Amino acid sequence: MYGESPFILILIALFFQLICGKKAIKKTIPLSFGAVSLISITLQVIFSIVAYFIAYRNFYENFNGKEYHCGMGMLGIILISFFIFIMLLMVIIMQHLTRKNYQ
Prior knowledge:
By secondary structure, this protein is mostly helical. The protein has one domain (5-98). 80% of the residues lie in helices and 0% in strands. The chain has three helices and no strands. The protein has helices at 5-25, 33-62, 72-102. The chain is elongated. Keywords: Membrane, Transmembrane, Transmembrane helix.
Protein backbone atom coordinates (compact mmCIF):
# COMPACT_ATOMS: atom_id res chain seq x y z
CA MET A 1 0.00 0.00 0.00
CA TYR A 2 2.78 2.47 0.80
CA GLY A 3 5.43 0.99 -1.46
CA GLU A 4 8.92 -0.01 -0.48
CA SER A 5 10.63 3.30 -1.21
CA PRO A 6 9.58 5.11 2.03
CA PHE A 7 11.00 2.33 4.17
CA ILE A 8 14.23 2.19 2.17
CA LEU A 9 14.63 5.97 2.47
CA ILE A 10 14.18 5.80 6.22
CA LEU A 11 16.98 3.22 6.55
CA ILE A 12 19.58 4.90 4.28
CA ALA A 13 20.98 7.22 6.97
CA LEU A 14 21.37 4.37 9.45
CA PHE A 15 23.32 2.27 6.95
CA PHE A 16 25.39 5.31 5.96
CA GLN A 17 26.35 5.83 9.61
CA LEU A 18 27.21 2.17 10.12
CA ILE A 19 29.44 1.98 7.05
CA CYS A 20 31.02 5.43 6.95
CA GLY A 21 31.22 5.77 10.73
CA LYS A 22 33.35 2.64 10.92
CA LYS A 23 35.57 3.94 8.12
CA ALA A 24 35.88 7.34 9.83
CA ILE A 25 36.98 5.66 13.05
CA LYS A 26 39.70 3.75 11.18
CA LYS A 27 40.53 6.94 9.22
CA THR A 28 40.19 5.31 5.80
CA ILE A 29 38.01 8.17 4.50
CA PRO A 30 38.80 11.91 4.58
CA LEU A 31 35.68 12.78 6.62
CA SER A 32 35.88 13.07 10.38
CA PHE A 33 33.57 11.09 12.62
CA GLY A 34 31.70 14.25 13.62
CA ALA A 35 31.07 15.15 9.97
CA VAL A 36 29.77 11.65 9.23
CA SER A 37 27.46 11.81 12.25
CA LEU A 38 26.14 15.24 11.26
CA ILE A 39 25.52 14.06 7.70
CA SER A 40 23.67 10.99 9.01
CA ILE A 41 21.39 13.00 11.27
CA THR A 42 20.65 15.51 8.49
CA LEU A 43 19.92 12.72 6.01
CA GLN A 44 17.63 11.01 8.52
CA VAL A 45 15.54 14.13 9.00
CA ILE A 46 15.33 14.92 5.27
CA PHE A 47 14.63 11.34 4.19
CA SER A 48 11.97 10.92 6.90
CA ILE A 49 10.08 13.92 5.57
CA VAL A 50 10.43 12.74 1.97
CA ALA A 51 9.35 9.20 2.94
CA TYR A 52 6.24 10.59 4.63
CA PHE A 53 5.20 12.49 1.52
CA ILE A 54 5.89 9.52 -0.77
CA ALA A 55 3.86 7.23 1.49
CA TYR A 56 1.04 9.78 1.63
CA ARG A 57 0.94 10.07 -2.15
CA ASN A 58 0.94 6.28 -2.57
CA PHE A 59 -1.74 5.97 0.11
CA TYR A 60 -3.97 8.60 -1.50
CA GLU A 61 -3.59 7.08 -4.99
CA ASN A 62 -4.64 3.72 -3.59
CA PHE A 63 -8.10 5.07 -2.74
CA ASN A 64 -8.71 6.55 -6.21
CA GLY A 65 -10.19 9.79 -4.89
CA LYS A 66 -12.63 8.30 -2.36
CA GLU A 67 -13.37 10.60 0.55
CA TYR A 68 -13.01 8.31 3.56
CA HIS A 69 -9.70 6.80 4.55
CA CYS A 70 -7.96 6.22 7.84
CA GLY A 71 -4.62 7.94 8.37
CA MET A 72 -3.23 5.62 11.06
CA GLY A 73 -0.77 4.20 8.55
CA MET A 74 0.77 7.63 8.22
CA LEU A 75 1.24 7.71 11.98
CA GLY A 76 3.04 4.39 11.61
CA ILE A 77 5.47 5.93 9.12
CA ILE A 78 6.17 8.76 11.56
CA LEU A 79 6.73 6.36 14.47
CA ILE A 80 9.01 4.12 12.40
CA SER A 81 11.02 7.20 11.42
CA PHE A 82 11.28 8.22 15.07
CA PHE A 83 12.35 4.69 16.10
CA ILE A 84 15.02 4.57 13.38
CA PHE A 85 16.22 8.03 14.50
CA ILE A 86 16.63 6.73 18.06
CA MET A 87 18.52 3.71 16.68
CA LEU A 88 20.75 6.08 14.69
CA LEU A 89 21.58 8.05 17.83
CA MET A 90 22.39 4.82 19.67
CA VAL A 91 24.70 3.73 16.84
CA ILE A 92 26.45 7.11 16.90
CA ILE A 93 26.96 6.86 20.66
CA MET A 94 28.28 3.29 20.39
CA GLN A 95 30.65 4.28 17.59
CA HIS A 96 31.80 7.31 19.58
CA LEU A 97 32.61 5.09 22.56
CA THR A 98 34.41 2.66 20.25
CA ARG A 99 36.38 5.56 18.78
CA LYS A 100 37.44 6.66 22.27
CA ASN A 101 38.62 3.13 23.08
CA TYR A 102 40.28 2.77 19.68
CA GLN A 103 42.41 5.87 20.25
